[in-house]
Write a structure and sequence with these properties.
Number of strands: 10
Number of helices: 11
Helix content: 40-55%
Radius of gyration: 21 Å
Strand content: 5-15%
Strand order of the largest sheet: 1-4-5-8
Shape: globular
Structural class: alpha+beta
């Protein structure tokens, strides 16, 4: 058990940090305020290999590990959690095609996704199917060499802006085994989008409903076999949970660093805030909890890379802890800034708004607890 990063990993980390500082941080507040989807910056990230981090190299991917990805996403999110999170979702959708798609689908879709010439969205949630994802209703009826798709997906990051929609659709009966994974391309007749949602945070990426009205999609766009969609969706989410956890680490770390600097500058009662032991203790707890969360994310990443049978458990634990701790650290940093933390001239409030949704998406933290508890109480798993 070696907690030191390799020279190669330190290089990935530094590349991501430098890119984030130069290309994301100077613009993040404006993108947030004006709801700008930063296409140019995203494609610059793709040029560094960040659009297909764990996609295979033959289609332009970087073929890195999940731990490498966690390091990269923490650095990107330290500058702009919203944009980093969209890159995370794009990576998740691309990996699903790479891992479960046939060679024709891989070669057709992935070269443009790994350069971000095309953008990708992940479509699971529906207006009536959130945490109970297996109850989704959007349907794809087979008609010869095509599926005819009807229904709607809700809260889709990149909705309306993305070119590729990796969709979980019902091709069979009720329950998880009736779901298949099908790519719907922008421009397909019958594909439309709802209004752009007005959100608390994540404003540098559009969010909209994706609507299917007799969309005719080639059977060749199916990823995996019929009935495997739910399994594919859950496999994608294991990695997605780690990525969003890493984004929470990055945003929280930026807030911790800002709070530490502010405590050394701000004076009250004739002393800097850093001289008050109560505030020293608060800062110490923030740093300790953040580091504990980081170690859990790294453990989850190593578990996923090594196909550990407990990988889903470890990813759920990491996501639950890191996103809760991340938001808590941002909130404590805002408190340490006092009134200044609440105004937009300081970046703390942007990080806090962006990180709040991490406790909801990729499976709510309540669902993470369900996953953890089920595995803890599984008699077959715990039998001697």
């Amino acid at each position: 058990m070696d907690f030191r990063l390799s020279e190669e990993q330190l290089a990935f980390q530094e590349t991501a940090r430098q890119f984030a500082r130069e290309e994301l941080l100077p613009h993040a507040a404006e993108w947030d305020e004006k709801a700008v989807f930063p296409v140019e910056a995203l494609r610059k990230a793709a040029a560094l290999g960040f659009a297909g981090i764990y996609v295979r190299e033959d289609v332009g991917g970087s073929a890195l590990s999940r731990l490498d990805a966690a390091l990269i996403f923490e650095e990107l999110a330290a500058a702009d959690p919203s944009t980093a999170a969209y890159i995370s979702i794009h990576n998740m959708a691309s990996w699903m095609i790479d891992r479960f798609g046939d060679e024709t689908a891989r070669q057709r879709f992935l070269p443009k996704l790994t350069t971000m010439e095309h953008f990708a969205s992940y479509c699971l949630t529906e207006p009536g199917a959130g945490s109970d994802a297996a109850s989704l209703k959007s349907r794809a009826e087979r008609q010869g060499d095509y599926y005819v798709v009807n229904g709607a997906k809700a809260f889709i990051s990149g909705g309306g802006a993305s070119d590729i929609y990796v969709c979980m659709l019902r091709t069979g009966g009720e329950g998880p085994h009736g779901i298949s994974c099908i790519v719907v391309e922008k421009g397909t007749p019958g594909l439309s989008f709802g209004k752009k949602e007005r959100k608390l945070g994540w404003n540098s990426q559009p969010t909209a409903m994706v609507i299917f009205d007799n969309c005719k999609v080639p059977v060749a766009n199916r990823i995996g076999a019929e009935g495997e969609g739910f399994k594919i969706a859950m496999a994608g989410l294991d990695g997605g949970r780690l990525n969003i956890a890493a984004c929470s680490l990055g945003g929280a770390r930026a807030c911790l660093e800002a709070a530490r600097a502010y405590m050394g500058e701000r004076k009250q009662f004739g002393k800097t805030l850093s001289a008050f032991q109560a505030l020293q203790f608060k800062l110490a707890d923030m740093a300790t909890e953040l580091d504990a969360a980081r170690l859990m994310v790294w453990r989850g990443a190593v578990s996923l890379d090594s196909a550990d049978p407990e990988a889903t458990l470890h990813c759920a634990m990491a996501k639950r802890l890191a996103t809760d701790v991340g938001f808590k650290v941002c909130n404590e940093a805002l408190q340490l800034h006092g009134g200044y933390g609440y105004i937009k001239e300081y970046p703390i409030e942007r990080y806090l708004r962006d990180l709040r949704v991490h406790q909801i998406l990729e499976g709510t933290n309540e669902i993470m607890r369900v996953i953890i508890a089920r595995r803890l109480l599984d008699e077959r798993r715990n039998r001697p």
